[in-house]
Amino acid sequence: MKQTRDSIVNIWGDRAPYVGDWPVRVDERTTEAPDHWVQSACILCSNGCGMDIGVKDGRIVGVRGRAVDRVNHGRLGPKGLHAWVANHSSDRLTQPLMRRNGKLEPVSWDEAMEAIVQRSKQICQQHTSGAIGFYTSGQLFIEEYYTLAVIGKAGLGTPHMDGNTRLCTATSAAALKLSFGTDGQPGSYTDLDTTEAILHIGHNIASQQTVLWSRILDRLAGPNPPKLVVIDPRETETTRKADIHLAPRVGTNIPVMNGLLNLIIEAGQINPDYIEAHTVGFQNLKATVAKWTPERVQELTGIPPEKLRAAAEILGSTSTLVSSALQGVYQSMQATAAAVQVNNLHLIRGLIGRPGCAIYQMNGQPTAQNTRECGADGDLPAFRNWDNPEHISQLAQIWNVDASIIPHWTPPTHAMQIIRYAEQGSIKMLWISATNPAVSLPELPRIRRLLAKEDLFVIVQDAFMTETAELADVVLPAAIWGEKTGCYTNVDRTVHISHKAIEPPGEARSDLEIFLDYARRMDFRDKDGAPLIKWSHPEAAFEAWKECTRGRPCDYTGMSYAKLSAGSGIQWPCNDTFPNGTEHLYTDGVFNTSADYCETYGHDLTTGGAVSPEAYKAHDPKGKAFIRAADYEPPHEEPDAEYPLWLTTGRVVYHFHTRTKTGRSQELNNAAPDSFVQISAEDAAKYGIAEGDMIEIESRRGRVIEPARIGNILPGLVFIPFHYGYWDHPGRSRAANELTITEWDPISKQPHYKYAAVRIRKAESAILQDIMPDAKAEVVETVKEMLNLEG
Amino acid sequence: MHVGNYLGLVHQSEQQLADAFSKVADHHGDEPDILQTCQLLSSWSQEHVKALHPLIDRYSEDKSDEPERLSQTLFEAPREGSLALLRDLHDLWLLANEVQLCWIVLLQAAKALRDQELESSCEQFSHQTQRQITWLLTRIKQAAPQSLVVAA
Prior knowledge:
The complex is a heterodimer of chains A (791) and B (152). With 791 residues, chain A is of the alpha/beta class. Helix content of chain A is 32%, strand content 16%. In chain A, β19 (486-489) and β20 (494-498) form a beta hairpin. Chain A is globular, with a radius of gyration of 25 Å. Chain A has a 7-stranded mixed β-sheet, with helices on both faces. In chain A, strands 24-26-25-28-23-27 form a 6-stranded mixed β-sheet. Chain A has a 5-stranded antiparallel β-sheet with strand order 1-2-5-4-3. By secondary structure, chain B is an all-alpha fold. Chain B is 84% helix and 0% strand. Chain B is built from 6 helices and no strands. Chain B has helices spanning 3-27, 32-51, 53-59, 66-74, 82-113, 116-150. In chain B, α1 (3-27) packs antiparallel against α5 (82-113).
C-alpha cells in the first residue's frame, strides 16, 4: 500500500504557492506495487487529469498522476485516487440479461443482440426509425460516440439521440455557439497561472474539479494572487476563499449579471475598439442592462449594492480574467441567457484570446465534450449545422450515404423530448448507455413509470445493475475505463488517450464492440453497398473521426494514437497549421460565426425560437462575435403558502453522478455515506429541527426523507445532493430528483434542477400525520409524548 | 379615415391570440415547454392589448367580431395528443399571422399619418409578434415529423 497523501482528509493537498509555472506534485495511491503502469486519464470529472493505471497480475492496483501532463502536473483528487476500485467490484455485470416472465435472466450475447436487432427491424418496418431513440452518456470515448452517431444518423436515420450531457453541459455548448458561432472553449487551464482575477458563477469548483481548485489555491497562496469573485447562493469551500461572495436568491442569475455589466459599462471600463472591431449587438446589451441599477438588482437578488459594486470594480478593472460557469447557471432559470452574459463580460472588455484570459463554460463529465463533438447528443458531428445543407452533404460524403438518410429537418431531439415521446408511446425502443436516468432525470416517479411501460423496449448498457438497469428489457454488460482503449477531451480541449490496462470481467464488452456488433447484425450499408461502419477497432474509429473533423473548429487531423501516447494531452485544433495543438482560440478576434461555418443560426434568448438561415445570412456577422442581451424572466415555480421553501440540488466532493463508481469505494462512501438536507439555522429554529433529525421534504411531484444539516445556506433555501439513489440503500425515499421539476431551458433544453418549491416537516410528525390525517394537534402531541418523540 | 377599423381589428385579434395561447397552455400542460412558453407569449399579447388603449382613444376603434369568429373556426373542440398539439400550434400560427398583418397595415398608415407614436408602437408590437411566430414555427417543425409519421 502506497499513498502519497490522504485525499479524503486533505481534499486539495498541501499548498505549492506559485505564479507562472505550476509546480509538479505526483499523487499516488496503490494497494500493491504494480508490475507495470498504463497511460490513461481520470474519468471522474471534466477536468481530465493525466493518470497512469498501476497493474499487477491483470488487476488494477492503483493510480498515479502524470507529472508531465499539462492539465494536472501530477495531481489527482479524491475521486480519481479512490474510485478505480469499482472496476473490480464483485457486483459488476458479467453477462447479458433479458427479461423473461418479468424477471431478468442470463442469456448469451447472441440471444441478446438478436433480440435487439429483431426488435429494431420490426419497429423500423412498422413505425419507421423515428420510433427508436438513444440516450447515451458523458462517460464513453470518442471512438464509441462517433460510431453510435454514425449508426443513428446514417444507419437507422433517427433524429432521436442525446446524451446525459443534456443534464450537465448542454448550456455550455449552447452559450458558446450563441456567442462565438460554434462550441469550443476559448481559453486554457494555463490561463489560471497568470490571471489577475477569477470569476466563478454557479460553480462550486472546490467540490467539482478539486485539482483545478488546487491550482487556484496555489495561486491564491503565491505572490500577486488573483482577486476571486464567487456568485453562489450557498456558502461553500469556494465562497470561503472569495474576495467578494455574492449570494443571490435562486433563479436570479440574469439580474446579477446584468447588474454587473451595467456597472462596468457605466464606469466606462469597456474596450470600445474591441467591441467595434470584433462584435455585434453591444448597443442592445447596453440598453437592456441600463435598467439594472444596483438597487433594482438588490430587490430581486438580495445582494447589497455595495457588494455588487465591489465585484464590478474587480471585474471591470482587471486586465486579465478567467471566468467559469456551471450548474448553478446551466440548471437554473434562463440558463443559456445567463451563461451568455459571462461571454459578454469578456467580449465587452476584450478579455479573450490571449494568455490569462479564459472562459470555461464548464462541462460536468469527463467525456461530455466528445458527446457534443461526435454528434451523440443533439448536435451533428464536428460542430456541423443541421440547418446548413452544405454541412449535411459533407457528412453524406464522409459516410458515403445519400444525404436524405441523415435526419436534419429539425434539430436532433433533446433528451427530455425523447423521454416525452417514449411516455406518449411514439418512441418504442430506447437504448440507454452508461447513464442512470432512473436517478438522474427530474421527477423520478414519472421516469420510473415510463421506463417500466409495456410498450417501451428498454436496452440498458452498463457496468452495474443500476436503478435503470432494473427496469430494462435487455441488459448488456459493458467494459469500462481501464478495460478498453480510446480518447477523450476535457474542458480546455485537451485530448488524452486511455489505454486498455486489464481485461473486462466475465463476458463484458466495450461499448464500441457492442455498437459495432449491432451495426454488423443490422447490416447497415453505404450507398455503394459496402458496410456503413468501416472500422472494427478503436484506432481505426479514431482515424475515421479525424477525417470527419478536417477543417472544422475541433480539428483532430494532426493527432494520432502514437502522438497522444508519446505525450500527455494535446489541445485541439491540432492539424498541419497547429501540429502541437492550440492553447487559445480566437487570438485574432475572428470567431466561428460566418454563415457557412457556424454551428447554429441562433435562437431567441427568451423563447428559443430558431433564427432562419435567410435571416442569419441577411446579417452575416462574418467572424464577429455576438453580444446578446436578455431581460429577467421569473422562475416557473416559486415558493408559496403551500410549498414555502426553495429547493436546490448539487454535489458533494466525494461522489460523482449516481455513485455507480464512487459509491463502491469504501473510503469515498465512508466519507459521505448518505444523502442529507441542508437548511439554515433560521429555518431550523422555525421548524424545531436539530442537526441529524430526519426531515421529510415534499414538492408537488414527490417526497424524500433526509437527515438535517444546519447552516451555511440562505434562509428559505434547502439543499439536497443529487448523488444518492437506491441500489445500495433500498427503502427510504432519498433521491433529490423525486422532487425536481420537468421543465427545461428554451435553448439548451437543459432541465431546471436548481429550483423547486418544497415544504418540510420533521419525519416523525409526517408519519403521525399520515397515519392519523384527521387527528387534532393535541392528539398528535399526546402520541408523540407517548412515543417519546420530540418536535 | 379607417385607422379605427384596423385598430379594432388588431385589438380583438391580440385579445383572441392572448386567449388562445393561454387555452393551448392549459390543454397541453403535459408538455412543459408548451405550457410555459404559451403562457409567456399570452402575456405578451395581453400587454399589447393594454398598450393599445391610448391609441384607441385617439383614433376611436370600430369594434369587430371578425377575430372572434376566426378563432372559433380555428380552435374547434379541445384536442389532446401529439397531432392535436400540432394542430393547435398551427392555429396559433394562423392567428399570430393575422395579428402581424394588422400591425403591418397599421404601420403603413402610421407612416402616412406621420404619427410617430403609432409608428413606434406598431414596430415594437410587430417585432414581438414576429418572435411569437418564430417560436411557433420552430416548435411546429419539431413536432411535425413525429406526429405525422411515427405517432399512432
